[in-house]
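C-alpha cells for SDR family oxidoreductase. Go.
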Amino acid sequence: MSTRKAIFITGGASGIGRAIALYFGQRDWFVGLGDVDTFGMEVTMDMIGHGFVFQHKFDVRDRAAWDEALESFSTATGGRIDVLANNAGIPLGGALEENSVEEIERCLDINLKGVLFGAQAAYPYLKKTAPGSCLLNTASAAGVYGTPGASVYSATKFGVRAITESLDGEWAEDGIKVRSIMPSFIDTPLLDHNPNAKSNEDIRSRVTEAGLEITPVEEVAKAAWDAVHGEKLHTLVGKTARQLAFGARWMPGRVRKQTRESARPLGK
C-alpha cells in the first residue's frame, strides 16, 4: 500500500469541495475529485498543481457509480483511501408550498441518499486504512436549528448530522473516525443561485439583507482538516453557526422567537 494519504471529495468541482481539495493537496495528499461537472474538476486539478490528483465523473445518487468511482480512485492511489469527504449537496429554499415535487426529491436524493450511499461504499476502504481513517460529512448550520424557508434543506442537513452520529458509534470498533463540518453561509457560487425555481432573488442577496455573516470558504477547508485530525464529532464553521448552536442549547426560547420573527422565507 502507498504511504501517501488519500482523500476522495464529492462536489470537488467548486465551492467547499474545491477548497478542501486545495487544502489537502497543498499538504501532499493524493486528492480524488467526484462530481457531475467535468470542467470544474479539471479547474480544481489545475489549481492543485501536482500529479497526485484524480477525477471521476459520477452522480452521488447512483449507488453502483459509487463503487466504480472509489475502486478507480483506490487503484490510482496504490490501494488506499484514508478520507471520504461526503460533500456534494444542493441548496433548496422558499416556502414549502412553493417547492416542486421534483425539487424536493432532488434535494433529498443528493443531500441525504448520496451521503448514505457514499458512506456505505467507502466503508471497506476506510476499514482497510484504519485506525485514523475518516468519513467526513458536510452538514450545515441548518442542521442545528430548522431554518424558515428551507424546510427540505434543513431536513437533509439534520439527516447528515444523524448519519454522522450513528456511524460514529457504529464504526468506532473499526477505528474509523466519523465527523461532520457544520458551516453557515459560505462564500461560494451556491450563494448566487436562486433558492428555488419560482424565486427571482439569489440567496446571497437575502443573506446580506438579513445582516448575516458570509464566511470565507478557506475557513471551511481548514475546519475539514481539523475535523479529520481531531476528536470533535461536529465542527461548527463561522460566527453564525456558532451563535446559533449556542442559542439553541442555552436559549432555545429566544432562538425560537427570533426564528419566527424573521420567517420571511428565502425566495419570497
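Residues 6-261 form a domain with the Rossmann fold fold (CATH 3.40.50.720).
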